[in-house]
Amino acid sequence: MDFQLTEQQRMIRDAARDFAQKELAPHAAEWDRNETFPAEAVKKLGELGFMGMNVPEQYGGAGLDMVCYVLAMEEISAACASTGVIMSVNNSLVCWPLETYGTEEQKQKFLAPLARGEKLGAYCLSEPDAGTDAANQQTRAKRDGDEWVLNGMKNFITNGANADTLIVFAQTDPELRHKGILAFIVETDREGFEVIGKEKKLGIRASDTAQLALDNVRIPADQQLGPDGAGFKVAMSTLDGGRIGIASQALGIAKAALESSIEYAKQREQFGRPIAKFQAIQWKIADMATRYEAARLLTLRAANLKDQGVRYSEESAMAKLFASEASNWIANEAVQVFGGNGYSKEFPVERNFRDARITSIYEGTSEAQRMVISGHRLR
Ligand code: CAA
């Protein structure tokens, strides 16, 4: 494995960092405070090619590799983790399944505008009774002539209140369990679709997390995504890539917390010298940096495997598990380095601490990642 980034990967990382520091960092605290969806910034991300990074150019994407995506996600999330998840969902959870399982017509019609950032996507798997047990889908899909009719409720849907295009999972025959699940492409301007609520959250407050209702939503039969009986595999294989995105978001939050801790420790004086001169702080910085680097290697390894076209389910689960737990740990230590200031909204580590928390919950809890990893090791 080559640990050096290519010139293109460095260029993409630098472009993302430049954008993040100029367009996101100055506003992130205010967006967080007011729960403001960063619509303008998301539009600009689309214009720069960051909303469909791995999609081939013929379908409106930037045609870049997964390592570029990890590097960009990290930089964006270091400045604003809310913008990070908006970008991650569009790239990994919506563009990827459309590119992988979509027909040529579906790619032209739905993927291209999403990859160009002209439209925004959301991934609708979670339901009130289908969290970790994702196969327990209660949303129903019934065939009626040339149409599918969808009925049900989805919750905790990132981008749900702002999306144009949804990937919706629904059950056609409960007796078939996961083999009865199908995936569908649903436009949010269809009759019967409604945003019924938005979560009030601890972190990533500038991204919306919505509860959605589908009440006799009719879509043409050709908006089924993937073959019959394959919806659960579409969902799970999509999450394999999504988890690399969330690992990268966690890395970004950790990086921000670590860098600001280093800067603060060098400036903040107690007992007549900078606190960085005390071993208590030096050891914290050393442990934070080591966990961050280990998380980064796991994440880049998973991305590298995806680029090579080999199965990476276990490696992406490991990356997500370790990076999200490391991010929580690092952000917690950062608050400690800042002391009382770390508990205040005046300093960004307070937001890093809150934003890190979700990374070990969504796109599969740490416990779900352990189920995936142990499933591979014990088979
Ligand atoms: N790729 C392809 N197929 C896969 C797969 C993968 N990664 N993982 C499982 N499958 C297949 C299996 O091979 C099996 O197929 P066969 O029956 O043909 O052999 C089938 O799927 C069922 O597999 P399991 O028996 O392992 O499934 P399970 O019901 O026991 O579930 C689980 C396993 C790991 C708990 C899974 O349900 C899971 O990952 N749960 C967490 C759900 C999750 O991550 N939700 C996040 C919601 S999205 C979100 O948060 C988005 C957001 O807005 C940010």
Question: How would you summarize this macromolecular structure in one to three sentences?
Answer:
The protein is α+β, with helices and mostly antiparallel strands and 379 residues long.
Walk me through this protein's architecture.
It contains 11 helices and 10 strands. It is an alpha+beta fold and 379 residues long. A hairpin with a 2-residue loop joins strand 9 (269-270) and strand 10. The model has no long low-confidence stretch (mean pLDDT 98). It has helices at 7-24, 28-34, 39-47, 66-79, 81-101, 104-115, 231-267, 279-308, 313-338, 349-359, 366-377; strands at residues 121-124, 140-144, 147-158, 165-171, 181-187, 193-198, 209-220, 224-225, 269-270, 273-274. It has 3 domains: 7-120, Orthogonal Bundle (Butyryl-Coa Dehydrogenase, subunit A, domain 1), CATH 1.10.540; 122-231, Beta Barrel (Butyryl-CoA Dehydrogenase, subunit A, domain 2); 239-377, Butyryl-CoA Dehydrogenase, subunit A, domain 3. Helix content is 52%, strand content 16%. The strands form 3 sheets. The chain has a 4-stranded mixed sheet. Helix 5 (81-101) packs antiparallel against helix 7. The chain binds acetoacetyl-coenzyme A. Acetoacetyl-coenzyme A binds next to helix 5, strand 3, helix 7 and helix 11. Residues 89, 93, 123, 125-126, 132, 134-135, 157-158, 178, 232-233, 236-237, 239-240, 313, 362-364, 368, 371-372 line the site of acetoacetyl-coenzyme A.
